[in-house]
Amino acid sequence: MRHFALVALLAAVLAGCATTTPPTAVHQPMTARPEARDYAGPSNGAIYNIASARPLLEDRRARLLGDTLTINVAEKTAASKISENKASRSQSIAVTTPSIVGLPFKGAQGTALNATDANSFDGKGQNTSTNDFTSTITVTVIEVYPNGNLLVSGEKQIGLKEGEEFIRFSGVVNPVYITAQNTVQSGQVADARIEYKANGFLDSAQVMGWLGRFFLSFLPF
């Protein structure tokens, strides 16, 4: 009974590991709460609340910690590489035994020896890679740099029947590129990190198990 409980516990742990959130390389944290600001103005009234009030002519573009910003992700890359190598070598040797009086094995005198060696190598390689990623994600300002640039980070989770999909984005935004609609293009973001990952049994089936990775790390063949 104890062995059965241990096996069930191990299966539960492995099942939980299989559905964990995929690791990420985007800037952390994913979001940040806005800081409290001192506001010198009228006190709360019947329909007026200091915490949520914003001046009518205030710039609505992101500029403070906790503000949100919409990123239009439009990434398209293409790369192609072709290489070709050729090498050849040829060698020929001819040896003739002279006729010398007094040598033993006179039957071998006058024998000619020829040797020919040829070696060639022809190698070709071609690699083509394309990437097309279009999406929209709203991120949060997690840090404001001294020069006014904004470090933003955010995540979008989409739950499906087979698992979950994660779209993550982070980078440094120059406020100059933020439009009046509080949006910016992904190509205008510095140090951009874009991820599209998923978990579920379909994605787990395409990943090598931990035991296979363990043996692959030190086996020479």
List the defining traits of the structure above.
221 residues, mainly beta
Could you explain the architecture of this structure?
There is one protein chain. By secondary structure, the protein is mostly beta strands. It has a domain at 82-126. The chain is 13% helix and 44% strand. It contains three helices and six strands. It has helices spanning 2-18, 201-204, 210-216, and strands spanning 68-96, 112-144, 150-159, 163-173, 183-185, 189-200. Strands 5-1-2-3-4-6 form a six-stranded mixed sheet. The chain is elongated, with a radius of gyration of 35 Å. The model has no long low-confidence stretch (mean pLDDT 76).
Instruction: Round the Cα radius of gyration to an integer and report it.
Output: 35 Å
Please list the strands of the largest sheet in the order they lie side by side: 5-1-2-3-4-6
Query: Could you name the ranges where pLDDT drops below 50 across 5 or more consecutive residues?
Result: none
By oligomeric state, this entry counts as single chain
What's the number of helices?
Answer: 3
Number of strands: 6
- Describe the biggest sheet? 6 strands, mixed
> How many angstroms does the end-to-end distance come to?
41 Å
* pLDDT averaged over residues: 76
